[in-house]
Specification:
Strand order of the largest sheet: 7-6-5-8-9-12
Oligomer: single chain
Helix content: 25-40%
Order of helices and strands: EHEHHHEHEHHEHHEHEHEHEEEE
Number of helices: 12
Length: 308
């Protein structure tokens, strides 16, 4: 049995789902399950969104088998952390019982050598239960499976509200370009975690590349900071600002961005997935080299993706 723990916001959940799908394909004889109990105690972002957004009657491609608490315990050697009390119990369990645990753990922290980690993933000892944590952003885990993932992670557009339907119509009726500017948490808690708030030099360079390659681009700016967009992008003509989707409606920004012909992403898995879901064969996706204060983004080999 292999269990993958899901954590964090929508973009990271989607990378974990892509990795979950990779594991199921790599180990077809094993039971591969999802541990979603992190969301029972952690209230960050909008909770666990994959089921709400993609598990629908009209989407038979999306599959997610969730582990129960006993299965999680068998794989991890710990009780699912649903409270501070459980956290204390788990620390004591690791201290006194860890050497008796017969399962195995595979953890990605983001600091490992990617090729070494990939070798571990591809050679799991299936004679033991395995518990896996991490985000697994490396394109090797999803690049060859993108057509199917685009079906699995397809958004429902039938029930969009009038405002978003109007913008979607504008996007699909033009040579549209999504531009994602992430500020908000990147100026507060994200900054303390090393995330960069990208400067205007990145966006000016990216837009120059788009203008050079696209026929008649119309720009759609997405951000949680409307005032910043109005001030810093005042020089940009043919633009529409989208900054009204928040809370449980935040995913609608990703939906709209993914329908644009081209996209300029932020250093964010949220807009990165908008680019990965893009259905256009000739799409241009600009993404930043700068990602964390001490680590650059991975180089992608997907057609049309340009790193600056």
């Amino acid at each position: 049995m292999i269990i993958l723990r899901f954590t964090s916001g929508l973009g990271n959940q989607m990378f974990q789902y892509a990795f979950y799908t990779y594991l199921r394909k790599k180990y077809p004889s094993e039971q591969v399950l999802a541990d979603t109990t992190w969301y029972e105690w952690n209230k960050a972002h909008q909770g666990f969104e994959l089921l709400r957004l993609f598990e629908r009657d009209d989407n038979p491609y999306f599959k997610l088998d969730r582990a129960n608490k006993w299965q999680i315990y068998k794989c991890s050697g710990q009780l699912p952390q649903t409270s501070q009390a459980i956290y204390v119990v788990n620390r004591l369990t690791r201290l006194f019982m860890g050497k008796h645990f017969e399962g195995q753990r595979l953890s990605e922290t983001g600091r490992e050598d990617e090729n070494t980690l990939k070798a571990l993933v591809d050679n799991i000892d299936t004679s033991k239960n395995t518990y896996i944590t991490g985000y697994f952003l490396k394109e090797d885990y999803y690049k060859d499976n993108l057509p199917l993932l685009r079906q699995m992670l397809s958004f429902d557009t039938k029930n969009l509200d009038a405002q978003n339907r109007e913008v979607l119509s504008m996007i699909e009726g033009s040579d549209s370009v999504a531009v994602h500017v992430r500020r908000g948490d990147y100026l507060t808690v994200g900054k303390s975690q090393g995330f960069l708030s990208l400067g205007m030099d990145y966006y000016r360079r990216a837009i120059d590349i788009i203008r050079d390659k696209a026929r008649n681009p119309k720009f759609f700016l997405f951000s949680d900071d409307k005032e910043f967009l109005m001030k810093e992008f005042s020089w940009l003509e043919e633009k529409t600002i989208v900054s009204y989707n928040s809370g449980s409606d935040s995913y609608k920004d990703m939906l709209l961005m993914s329908r644009c012909h081209h996209i300029v992403t932020a250093n964010s898995t949220f807009s990165e997935w908008a680019g990965l879901l893009n259905p256009h064969d000739d799409a241009i996706v600009i993404y930043p080299k700068a990602y964390l204060s001490d680590k650059d983004s991975d180089i992608k080999t997907i057609d049309g993706w340009i790193r600056i």
